[in-house]
Description:
- This protein is 47% helix and 7% strand.
- It has 3 domains: 1-53; 57-127, no CATH class; 146-183, no CATH class.
- The longest helix has 22 residues, at 32-53.
- By secondary structure, the chain is mainly α.
- The chain is flat.
- Residues 57-74 have low confidence and may be disordered.
- The protein has helices at 32-53, 75-80, 90-96, 103-107, 109-120, 146-162, 166-183; strands at 15-21, 24-30.
- The chain has a two-stranded antiparallel ribbon with strand order 1-2.
Amino acid sequence: MLMKCESCTKREATIEFTTVAGNEKTTSHLCPVCAAAFSQQQATEAEDQAQDKSAVKPTSVKKKKVNVVVGHLSKSEAKSTVCPDCEMTYDEFRKVGRLGCPSCYRAFAKPLKRLLKRIHGSDHHVGREPGMETLVSADPPPADTGIDQLDQLRTELAQAVEDEEYERAAQLRDQIAQLQVEDAPDA
């Protein structure tokens, strides 16, 4: 049974949007055309709200405990990196777990990129977006993240040493060192 779009009631609903406002959760079933429009509207509203909130310093916002892994900078970098609009420091972001305004994304771009790569295995979105169905690959994302690859190489290295394959062990050691350099945060 095909579900019709709740917005236009003309096309098949293939996308489900869930919106949470306060303690209320609403779900909408939309076609790709209406979903794209809805998504754009939500983005505009979120940007407007963020601009309204940027007038308030983020330190005055009630701090909540957030289970977020945050990026790492040296102490001097954490203190010196400051958002030009809301004046949030990177150190404050690490404590609060949330950015203060849209400009924070630009101000903290470098550590955020490392953070996203470490948490998600990629520093850019690879999932579905409304209106972009034809661009999304049907292939699943690669299973190996940098950490999985390092673990696998270390296991192979231990086996090569155990088997007395020292040339192979040296190659694996070099590959591990190269991966660690690539994954290391820029200081």
